[in-house]
Amino acid sequence: MTTFAGCQAVLTGPDFLVPDREWCERRIPEGIGRPAADFFYSSMLATNHDAHDRLRRLVVRELSARRVAALRARVEELGAELLDAFAEAAAGGAVADFHELVALPLPVAMVGELIGVPRADQQGLSLLGDDAVRLLEPVRTPEDWARADRGVGGLRTYFAGLLHERRSRPADDLASALAVGPLTDSAGLTDDELVDVLVLMFAAGFETTAAMLGMAVHALLSHPEQWALLRRRPELVPAALEESLRWDAPVPMTERITARATEVAGVPLPAGASVIAVMAAAHRDPEVFADPDAFTIGRPDGRVLSFSAGAHYCVGTALARLEGVVLLRQLLHRLPRLTPSGPPTRRTGDGLRGFTRLPLALAG
Ligand code: HEM
């Protein structure tokens, strides 16, 4: 499905469900018995109805707009620290990697702190997370499975330890809320299920956001007239972030299965059909966006499906947007002379867009 209305109908309609464990067993038998498949197909992203509500309820409150707004000062502090390190690396006209120095460590630190991961452990965990997100590939190769198994296995071991620790010494973080919180008791989750909630929150929370930050900066700098407009009118920062989420969405597509015979956009579908909602294509739908291929901040028609819609609407939306808005504002003030310096390197695969290297410099 490539139109905006079609994607919205698929993501929000009651006839469409996410592929679940039963579907995995029938359609991708090579996943059976693998830790990565066991994790993914029992997670929020691959459960429906009551099984999904039971998991989602545990985390939505922790990531509500109000809770996230309280994190603003911390995002500002970390952003300033990382931009200083970037400016130092780029001193004297040197080329520095914005992805490595800013776009990746900011969300790793934010989601790490939200969960309760000490800073010293964050980078190692992000490497495991990088392996785990191969699960987002629409068609997983044997190498994707092997990497995902490795990542999920390592993250499960780490978060089992953290949960154990928080049980005896609770702190003010998500791991403690899950370890000793009243919600957990009422939902009756096993320890293995709680560990997997933390694994999902960590893995889903940083790669996507790092991708968004890098792609927003790249989109702005590769459209100098838009960057100049933003420098003149910094109040357009939230709109600039939305336009970058439209123009280059970190998660370009997602899959649904028809629960019964239905139709979408006039196309009849049998029960059990697989439908791919291609949000990246919906974002270029000329029925919704005038001149859709142009990167234009402050569009009147700016609304995005980058965080999906419906029952699985991303729970980290407020945090991701906060990080994006704070960082872009800081860039305008601290590094207004930022400029591209050589071609960036894109991630491989189709499940998640973004950069693995974004070389930038400070113009003289
Ligand atoms: C720019 C950053 C982000 C993007 C583009 C993004 C994108 C998405 C998308 C597209 C989905 C739904 C997939 C579907 O409908 O099949 C999703 C779900 C989810 N996201 Fe995000 N996400 C981002 C940041 C975050 C952050 C910061 C967190 C956590 C701190 C997070 C946690 C989750 C979780 C737990 C789900 C599962 C929700 C459910 O299935 O009910 N995400 N995200």
UniProtKB/TrEMBL annotation:
| Keyword Heme annotated | yes
Looking up Pfam families in the UniProt record yields: p450
Keywords, A to Z, come to: Heme, Iron, Metal-binding, Monooxygenase, Oxidoreductase
From which residue to which does any coiled coil extend? none
Which PANTHER family does the protein's record reference? CYTOCHROME P450 YJIB-RELATED, P450, PUTATIVE (EUROFUNG)-RELATED
The entry assigns this protein to a family as follows: Belongs to the cytochrome P450 family.
User: What protein name applies here?
Assistant: Cytochrome P450
